Every structure is written in C-alpha cells, then in structure tokens.
Amino acid sequence: MKKIMLSLLAGVALLITSCDKADGILFEDKSTAIKADKSSWTATADSETPDGLENTGKASAVLDNNLATYWHTDYSVSNPDYPHWILIDMKKDYKLVTVVVTNRQGATPNKSGMKKFSLQGSSNGTTFSNLGTFNFAITNDPQSFPVSSASAYRYLKLTALESQTGTTKHTFLAEIDVFTVK
C-alpha cells in the first residue's frame, strides 16, 4: 500500500512540474454593471446654500467626486421644509442598476440630514417613473440602492422626504453615483 501511495504522489508531482501553464491566473470581468462617468452631467435642486454662507452647498457638488464638498439645502432666512429634491441630467439615457448615495462627511456621521427618500427616472425631465422609496442610514459610507434596469432614463431625481430628527428642515449629500448596465 505504501508503494502505491508513493507512486501516486510521485506521479502527481511529475504532472504538476511538467505543466506548461503560466503561474498567473487570468480574470475575465463578467459583471453586468459599470460606474457611469458623470463628468459632463449637471445637477439642479429645489434649494441650495446661498452664495457667501459657506464654500460649498451647490447641487453640482454631488457630481464632483469630492467627498469634502456637498449639496446643502438653504438654511438661511427662507429655510424651506421637506420635501427637498435634486435633479441630475445625465445627458443621455442609461439603464440604471444601482444608485449610490453618500452622506455629507463628518468626524462622526452627520445625523440631521434625510432619513427617507425616493428615486425617480425620466427620459424628458418632466414625466417621471418611480424607482423606489428608501431609508437612508446615518453613516459616512456610500449606500447602494438597487433599481430596475427595465427602462432607460436621462434624468435621475432624488427627493428627500423626511429628516432624521423629524424637526430639521434642511438636508445635504456629498455624492450621487450611478451604476448602469454594461
């Protein structure tokens, strides 16, 4: 029995050392989604921080790939109440798979932004289809929200429906990213 085992092990070792295949393993990307390039996109909102109040706060901040900047609704004199919306023009139709939303960054996650929001898609910017209503966690980490890729949309609208505190009137976001069908 010992001779058979030694013969088997020797055969396996010979087979392994005589193999002409490379040591590296090739990986083929078979994913079905890709992060969309948002460099040419534009964003508008129902409310923004007025000029001069802080060095950021504009709707365009959710598209700049910089977590240190953020969109912030107006909290000055007018201080409008919920709901708040931000509309992104992606400049062409995309079949969305996931929308990734990142909270305004802080040493501890900011607790006074939105708690619940909805996503809608549109091809013309006026007629919108509901993509879902979601809860937003208090975290600095990006949060992914899957949506149906059955239809293509040029416009993405995020509407903040209620605040984390129930009393705060404003909201804010650092980034919005979109993953689309590859």
TrEMBL record:
Keywords associated with the record: Signal
Domain F5/8 type C positions: 19-181
Coiled coil: none
Pfam family, one: F5_F8_type_C
Stretch forming the signal peptide: 1-21
InterPro entries with a match to the protein in the record: FA58C, Galactose-bd-like_sf
Superkingdom of the organism of origin: Bacteria
Protein name, entry field: Discoidin domain-containing protein
Origin species: Pedobacter rhodius
